[in-house]
Amino acid sequence: MSREKIAIICGGPSSEHEVSCVSGGGVRQGIDASKYDVTLIGITKLGQWVLLPNDYPLAIKDGQMPEIALNKNTVELTSGGFIINGDKVEIDIVFPVLHGEFGEDGQIQQLLEDAQLPYVGSGVAASAHAMDKSIAKALFVKAGMKIAEGFEVTLLDWQKKTSDLTYPVFVKPANGGSSRGTHKVKKAADLESAIKDALVFDELVMVEQAINGREIECAVLVRDGQIQASTVGEIVIDPKFEFYDFQAKYLDDATTIKIPAAIPDQDIATIRELAITAFKAVDCQGLARCDFFYTAAGEIIINEINTMPGFTGSSVYPKLWQASGVDYTLLITTLIESASTN
User: Fold this and answer.
1) Per the CATH hierarchy, to which homologous superfamily does domain 150-209 belong?
2) Alpha helices of 208-304 — where are they, by DSSP H?
3) CB atoms within 10 A of CB 334
């Protein structure tokens, strides 16, 4: 029996390029080589597509994040499929391990659908809606979920809209991930610099009331045709960090995830139900990670949904499924088997 041909795509033009590289390396290492024949494709920060050798370095080494370098092995994704170094290459399923812009906003998904290639993850509309925090929040509210109070600002109107804030607040790009450009602002004097930094990553910025609560994660997976939720975990952050930012997530070994979270069983069950509700509200497919706040009063507030969460063997999403009885290799296989043309 011949092995299915899987294209793993990582890198990309977003601010999460390096994180995507690490995730792509994880999938490449964890994939079941007895079932799948892998073609590894990288996208540089400037958007150039290249074929990568299977041993291309995609791990964090000595505190340095990997990135995709340009080479002579060109890749094109056309309406007729993949063209590599001028030749058509047959690919059965694509695993786009791309985070942020181009990876989670519907752009790569549209290209894959135009080429009629099955792929892992959510479709065009769901990806775009989940990526845009303001749209996602509106969908969560419509589904009866609690959200952090907030509003959008732009470079032109932020001063008018933020004149009477109650601090602390969070400032974050409306379309972004890995906490790039996200700031916890405790006083008015620090607001302008936070907003201007967030505007580097997106022209629309969310200003949200800070929630005093624990950070709880739940992973969602389509398995055997059913939408399933993992057990839940709590992000425990080194006190030197104000919140779960990029440095704490990837570079300082400053966070751990406690699985299962030390909260009442009834609330764990509710969070799992809400994660599936959020998944359905955005019309996701394949996988997603739902992030919640859990307050001292037992209030459960959804923060956001990620349609292509970090995917190394030690990332939160795979860890939650490992604790739920689905190991890393089986998780990758399950996602490939659930891939569709959407």
Assistant:
1) ATP-grasp fold, A domain (3.30.1490.20)
2) 246, 265-282
3) 19
Closest by CA to 244, choosing from 323, 177, 290, 311, is 177
* Interstrand relation of 205-209 and 255-258 (parallel, antiparallel or unpaired): unpaired
Q: Determine the Cα–Cα distance for residues 335 and 191; give it in Å rounded to an integer.
A: 41
Residue 141 has pLDDT above 70, yes or no: yes
What phi, psi does 254 have (nearest 5°)? -95, -5
Confidence of residue 28 (pLDDT cuts 50, 70, 90): very high
- Count the Cβ atoms, other than its own, within 10 Å of residue 269: 12
Tell me which CATH code domain 4-119 carries.
3.40.50.20
163 SS3 class: coil
pLDDT tens figures, 271-324: 999 999 999 999 999 999 999 999 999 999 999 999 999 998 888 999 999 999
Strands 87-89 and 81-84: antiparallel
| DSSP run (H or E) holding 213 | strand 213-223
Cα 242 to Cα 233: distance, rounded to the nearest angstrom: 19
> What is the Cβ-side half-sphere exposure of residue 228, based on CA atoms within 13 angstroms?
17
Q: Are 174 and 132 in contact (CB under 8 A)?
A: yes
Q: In angstroms, how far is the first alpha carbon of the chain from the final one? A: 27
CA 274/CA 229 separation, integer angstroms: 9
pLDDT at 237: 75
Domain spanning 129-147+212-338, CATH architecture: 2-Layer Sandwich (3.30)
Higher-confidence residue of 241 and 32: namely 32
In whole angstroms, what separates CA 294 from the centre of its chain?
A: 21
In this predicted model, which residue has the larger pLDDT, 331 or 248? 331
Pairing mode, strands 49-52 and 81-84 = unpaired
For tokens 């080589």, name the residue.
33
